[in-house]
Specification:
The complex is a heterotrimer of chains A (385), B (134) and C (260).
Chain A: H1 10-36, H2 51-64, H3 67-76, H4 85-106, H5 115-118, H6 125-152, H7 161-184, H8 197-223, H9 230-261, H10 264-274, H11 284-302, H12 304-308, H13 310-337, H14 352-384
Helix pairs in contact in A: 1-14, 2-4, 2-7, 2-8, 2-13, 3-7, 4-6, 4-14, 6-7, 6-14, 7-8, 8-9, 8-13, 9-11, 10-13, 11-13
Chain B: H1 10-24, H2 26-30, H3 45-50, H4 57-77, E1 82-84, E2 90-92, H5 95-102, H6 110-116, H7 123-126
Antiparallel strand pairs in B: 1-2
Chain C: H1 5-31, E1 39-41, E2 52-57, H2 64-77, E3 93-96, H3 98-101, H4 112-116, E4 119-122, H5 130-134, E5 140-142, E6 148-150, H6 160-164, E7 171-172, E8 196-197, H7 203-206, H8 213-217, E9 222-226, H9 233-240, E10 256-259
Parallel strand pairs in C: 2-10
Antiparallel strand pairs in C: 2-9, 3-4, 5-6, 7-8
Classes of the chains: A mainly alpha (385), B mainly alpha (134), C alpha+beta (260).
């Protein structure tokens, strides 16, 4: 079926070429980073994780969201989602690939990455992260490919796929839980040391991922002869609505705990993010934008008339994606590191090379996504033509 | 019915095979007659006076990579720094302070073979060598 | 000759395997020819302990000059670079004020001595180190004598340990440090870009029977010894002076004590 990714219309080739240019530029800047060191980024001794890890954290969530399509279909027989499970699974493949790439570009000594496997360390959450991410990638590639091929040949998928599909459901939850565990087990980082971090990660994942999936479905409907379906999009939008409400609720729980207890060390991180601390507040406008976007999204998604209108829904999904991206992709990392354990405020701003390398990774993800979606959509077009 | 006796696109295929062979054998025919001379690492006066390395010459020539790898593990992770050679003599396990104490001119010793076989060990990214001070 | 592609590939694959087996077996056989395991050991005069610790007496540390000597002794011995760009700073031991060394102690009504003093800040070589728990390759590990050690050969530069440290004791090489080392100490290696580093309790000096560099020049302000040895000087100092540690409530078990 791979040959379906090699043939397409002019728009397809132009889009893929654009992405390749993005990837190429990213690669060039990464070569610079390899020769100079991570000093070309904005990271510092005090904010030792930055944009790369933030993108990784956000994208693990998007990857996990495939379960929101797989679970209703395979566990609860919600037949409508059968049409789009492949889109969820292929989105997961592209997202996890980006996650792995982001971790790779963040390493100071990437050529030693195999040390994680040569010297396995079960007490390290990063070790488990490598295992579950790669496992999830393989799972989704295998399941997605096999199911799509079976559909193309008009046969039932092989029997051995069922257990793998069932496995992918808790595995999806696990990849984001393990990623949350990277942060929430560190005794010195009060902003992250909360039991609700893993649930927060999952709730923001389950609104960001399906929101992106809705947008991708709308694009597919516009650009190809395959229509993912009105009912499917409506159901996804209900999932996003619930998830974004839960996400904001969880955040408000954090606010209450921190500000009612009035513990200075805990308040400082949120103060830094939303009001600035000791004159430093580069993220303040971003965080308020994120909150506004999420609140606006809630209104647009909860009101049925708005949710059912696909144009308004698209706007809501963009708000959800942007809002959660700022929250997880910018706020969460800086919030944890600022102020530092000695209560100094050292701010972090990503540099241009850092952003270009990140865009290169995003371009790689979208390249993979486009190719896989081209294959899936071509098969569907064949069948439903 | 496909014809199993005739080769389709014969011209293109043969041309492609020839191009492929030319490219893959490039290092051989491009460098003909230019074989580099066998490297001769030069011993310092101190090394010549010592007469023996920590291992016999033939052994250390082939095993020094493994030896140094074991040394760096033992020094850093086992906190053991003294190496008792087969001869009974004790040495400090240190590239910079033992090996290069005798073999102190890297460009005339270590680099000779390394350049010839095109290996670039990264030891000296961290481990200071005597010549650097010049 | 009518042969299918599949059977050709099968035969080619099996032939390749067959031809490749003997050389591989030869190499594996060679490795079992090692006759004798070499003997490796510590120096006879190496200092040993079950739990290395340090007491910092701030009353004896009141001069800029002494602080300078202590910090320079460490940073020179270990080829710690000096960067102008504070974001890339590497420091193994440095000075902080009271409210930054002990942020959980409200500093509003502390003593004049505490308010005016500077506090030497370094890795605490914790009993239950969060950094060791976090490291995915065991590049940072706890030695039997208590030192939390760095293996620069193994570090992949993921900086998870830096996130995990509750004390901000760790530094990362954001670029090649060599050009920024003021005066190289040829007895100790430098590091390369992309690895994390921190105080190592001068384990290379302890191995030769010498005290840590900072302790040696501290004129008695720093007391270093085995906390597990009830007869040691450090235990005596701890018995006679009230000491505090940084963030003890986190359970990391820091082994640096401060007499304030």
């Amino acid at each position: 079926m791979l040959e379906k990714a090699l043939k397409g219309g002019v728009k397809y080739y132009v889009w893929m070429l654009l992405l390749l240019c993005g990837i190429g530029t990213g690669v060039l800047f990464y070569l610079w980073q390899l020769s100079f060191g991570l000093g070309i980024t904005g990271m510092s001794r005090d904010v030792s994780w930055g944009f790369y890890i933030a993108q990784f954290t956000f994208l693990v969530g998007v990857a996990a969201s495939a379960v929101m399509v797989v679970l209703p279909y395979y566990l609860h027989n919600y037949k409508a989602f059968g049409r789009i499970t492949i889109l969820g699974e292929f989105l997961a493949v592209a997202s996890v690939s980006m996650c792995i790439l982001f971790i790779f570009v963040d390493l100071g000594q990437p050529m030693r990455i195999l040390n994680v496997l040569l010297y396995p360390t079960p007490n390290s959450v990063l070790f488990w992260d490598m295992i579950v991410l790669n496992g999830y990638l393989v799972l989704n590639i295998v399941v997605g490919w096999q199911v799509l091929e079976a559909e193309r040949n008009n046969v039932a998928p092989a029997a051995w796929l069922k257990p793998l599909i069932y496995l992918s459901i808790p595995w999806a939850v696990s990849i984001h839980t393990v990623t949350a565990f990277l942060y929430c087990g560190l005794p010195g980082r009060g902003f992250w040391l909360t039991a609700i971090l893993a649930p927060r990660f999952l709730s923001s994942a389950f609104c960001a991922g399906p929101a992106l999936l809705i947008l991708l479905c709308l694009v597919i409907r516009k650009m190809t002869r395959f229509d993912p379906g009105k009912e499917q999009i409506l159901s996804l939008s209900k999932i996003v609505a619930y998830a974004i409400c839960i996400n904001v609720f969880f955040f408000l729980c954090e606010i209450f705990v921190v500000f009612y207890s009035q513990i200075p060390e805990h308040m400082d991180h949120i103060k830094y993010l939303f009001a600035g601390l000791h004159g430093h507040g580069v993220l303040v406008p971003w965080m308020w934008a994120s909150m506004s976007l999420m609140v606006l999204a809630i209104i647009l998604l909860v009101v049925p008339a708005c949710r059912k209108n696909e144009q308004v829904l698209a706007v809501a999904c963009v708000c959800v994606f942007a809002g959660t991206w700022i929250d997880k992709g910018l706020g969460m990392i800086s919030g944890g590191f600022v102020p530092n354990p000695l209560h100094h405020v050292v701010e972090y701003i990503p540099t241009i090379p850092e952003i270009i390398i990140s865009l290169g990774v995003w371009a790689t993800g979208f390249f993979i996504l486009t190719a896989l979606y081209k294959i899936a959509v071509s098969v569907k077009e064949e069948l439903h033509a | 019915m496909p014809n199993n006796k005739q080769m389709y696109d014969k011209g293109k295929v043969l041309a492609g095979i020839i191009v492929f062979l030319v490219i893959t054998t490039f290092p051989f025919w491009y460098n003909r007659g230019k074989a580099a001379p066998v490297p001769e690492p030069k011993l310092t006066e101190k090394a010549k006076a010592a007469k023996e390395c920590i291992m016999p010459k033939e052994e250390i020539r082939t095993e020094h990579m493994q030896l140094l790898d074991e040394w760096r593990y033992t020094v850093v992770r086992d906190a053991k720094r003294v190496y008792v050679a087969a001869s009974g003599k004790e040495y400090l396990m240190s590239l910079s302070n033992t090996c290069m104490d005798c073999h102190s001119v890297k460009s005339e010793f270590c680099d000779r073979c390394h350049n010839y076989s095109n290996v670039a060990p990264y030891c000296w990214d961290c481990h200071i060598y005597p010549e650097e001070k010049k | 000759m009518e042969r299918s592609r599949r059977s050709f590939l099968k035969i080619a694959g099996i032939s390749a395997l067959g031809i490749g087996v003997k050389p591989v077996l030869d190499v594996i056989a060679e490795q079992h020819d090692e006759a004798v395991e070499p003997i490796v050991k510590k120096h006879d005069n190496a200092l040993t302990a079950k739990r290395w610790g340090m007491v910092i007496d701030t009353h004896k540390l009141q001069s800029e000059e002494l602080f300078g000597k202590i910090i320079n002794a460490c940073h020179h011995t270990h080829n710690v670079p000096e960067f102008k760009n504070k974001l890339h700073e590497i420091k193994w031991i440095w000075l902080e004020e009271f409210q930054h060394t002990f942020p959980s102690i409200d500093a509003e009504y502390i003593s004049d001595h505490a308010r005016s003093s500077h506090f030497l800040t370094l890795c605490n070589h914790c009993e239950n180190p969060p950094c060791v728990r976090a490291c995915p390759t065991k590049a940072t590990f706890k030695r039997p004598d208590g030192i939390v050690m760095m293996d620069f050969h193994r570090c992949i530069g993921c900086r998870f340990c830096m996130a995990a440290c509750p004390y901000g004791s760790r530094s990362f090489n954001f670029r090649d440090p060599r050009p920024f080392i003021k005066e190289q100490n040829p007895k100790f290696p430098t590091r390369m870009k992309g690895v994390v580093e921190k105080c190592n309790f001068c384990e290379e000096r302890l191995a030769e029977g010498k005290p840590p560099a900072c302790v040696e020049v501290s004129e008695g302000a720093l007391v270093f010894g085995d906390l597990d040895d009830s007869d040691s000087e450090i235990r005596q100092v701890l018995k006679e002076n009230y000491t505090i540690r940084r963030k003890p409530e986190l359970g990391a078990g820091p082994n640096i004590f401060y007499i304030v």
